[in-house]
Here is the input.
Amino acid sequence: LGMIQDCGHVDFYPNGGKRQPGCNQNVVGAIEKEGDLLYGKYRIN
Here is the structure.
């Protein structure tokens, strides 16, 4: 994850900052999957 907005003294945007080779563009799906993994790891039955 990253930021598109300028936020520092020097901002670096590899490949223009939008599309990265091998990076899934479905960020929400990736976050949901990560949340499921974390929830499953710490769930108490």
Q: What stands out?
A: The CA atoms of residues 1 and 27 lie 8 Å apart.
